[in-house]
Amino acid sequence: MSRKIELLLPAKESSLPGNFTVYRALPRRELRRVGGFVFLDHFDADEVKPENFDVPPHPHIGLQTVTYLFEGEILHTDSLGYQQFIEPGAVNWMTAGKGITHSEQVMKTLPRMHGLQSWVGLPQKDRQTEPAFKHFGEAKIPLIEYESCKIRVIAGNLDEKASPIPTFQELTYLDIEAGQDCFMNLTVPANHELAIYVCEGEIEIDGHFIKRFELAKLTGNDEKLRFLSAKGARFILFGGVELPEPTVIYWNFITDTIGEAKQALIDWEEGKFSKVGKYRKISQKPQDDDPEKMKLL
Description:
The chain has helices at 258-269, 291-294; strands at residues 5-10, 12-16, 20-26, 37-48, 54-60, 63-71, 74-78, 83-86, 91-95, 100-105, 110-121, 132-136, 143-145, 149-155, 157-158, 161-162, 171-178, 182-187, 193-205, 208-211, 214-218, 224-229, 233-240, 248-250, 253-255. It has one domain: Jelly Rolls (Sandwich), CATH 2.60.120.10. With 297 residues, the protein is mainly beta.
């Protein structure tokens, strides 16, 4: 048996500070998480100026943020003192643990910025781990080349190729670049919850199409995934073992209880989180500090 489409959802547009548009695929009322992944933003914009993408310092606890680009460049700055440019094919993997603050900025006008940010919820026993930041250059991410397809193993493993990125739970995160008339039959972990999100083009699974800006939750318990792409596509396959309860997703936090999450928000508002000392605001537009947009971070 091969996995099929269980649920198909279009991503929803959201606007970040600087009026930068993202396509939010997770979380949704219909689908709160896939394996350990609790959040997925896709962005694709032309002529992005620094004032268009200046995400101010904001906090996280109980999760990991994963930033991955196809095109463009983002500067990550955090309260641990790290400042790192991320470029196409590289991976920024930040562990919030018991608390971290970070910002993300574009520092020069970019012809195109295209990429993804996802959040991985930490298992309950690991939510109070010390915060950390790691950067993995493109050369460190395993690349598997087939006749009509290239697959980069961001997390987990495929065909005996394993990602060097350590994780707190079993994950699958693959960047799949399919050429024209590509047909693949992949072996995937049977115990992983999995979903596909299409960034460019479209693919077909079991006679059903997944188009750009669509997320498809796949059926479980099968170790085969067959897909066809007639005209070519770029998409991700992601998920992992189920994130066990208790798991509360509230603003930028993963916690055991809603009370714990609300206390973290109070702590943030009272200035109790560590500062991002190297952050320098670029845009001076008043709407950049709009509380409603900050809620989307």
